[in-house]
Amino acid sequence: MSKVSVSISNDFCPQTLFLYGTYKEDGTPNFGLFCWFSYIWDSELGVMACIGGEKLTKDRIHATGVFSANLVTEAILSLADYFGNTDGYGADKMDIPVETRKGAVLDVPILDASPLAFELEVAQSIPLHDGEVFLCKIRNVLANEELADDTKTIEERLQVIAPVRTTCRTYFSWDGKAMGKWGEPMRKVRSLDNE
Q1: Contact call for residues 125 and 137 (beta carbons, < 8 A)
Q2: What confidence tens digit (pLDDT) does each residue in 144-186 have?
Q3: Does the predicted model carry a pTM greater than 0.90?
Q4: Phi–psi pair at 159, nearest 5 degrees
Q5: Interatomic CA distance for residues 35 and 88, integer angstroms
Q6: Alpha-carbon gap, residue 6 to 103, rounded angstroms
Q7: If we measure between CA atoms, which residue out of 171, 66, 52, 158 comes closest to residue 110?
Q8: All domains of the chain in start order, with CATH
C-alpha cells in the first residue's frame, strides 16, 4: 500500500479516556476529561499525564499534588463528555447528579460509575510552553470486583466494562463503532438536567 504525507496530528491513533478527579478548595469534587495518559517505569509502574492549556484540574493538581484517573466506559460516556466540554471554572459545572467517594489511600474523588480508578501522586512535573506533563506514582488502584474475577477471561472482563477510545475528535465504542463527535454525547446529561 502506498503512503502519503498528512497533517501532523494523532488521528487514527486511538487513545483511552480518563476523568481526572480533584477537589476544589471548598471540597467539591471536580472532574475533567483527558486522554493524554500513559505509563512509565521508574523502579515501579507509574503514570504520565499531560494537560494542555489553563484548566481548573491542572490548578488543583498544582495545589494538592494528587488526583484520580477514572476510566471512561460506554456507560458513562455522556457524563465524561459533559465534564470534558464544560468549563471547570464555572460555578455550576458539578450541579448534576453524580456519585463519588474518597480514594482509599489519597484524598481524591473517585467516580463510582467508573470501573477502574488510579489514585495518583505527582512525583515530578515538566512545564511546557502551553501544557504540562505530570509524572506520577500510582498509590492505589480501585477496581470493580468483576475485574478481579479470574474465572472470566480478560476479553470477557473488558467486554463487560467496555472502555471508550477517541481519535479524530470522535468517540468509539469498545467494538469500534462511532459514538459521536466531541460535545455530542453530553447533550443527554443536559437534557436530563433540564427535566
Answers
A1: no
A2: 999 999 999 999 999 999 999 999 999 999 999 999 999 999 9
A3: yes
A4: -65, -35
A5: 17
A6: 43
A7: 66
A8: 15-189 (2.30.110.10)
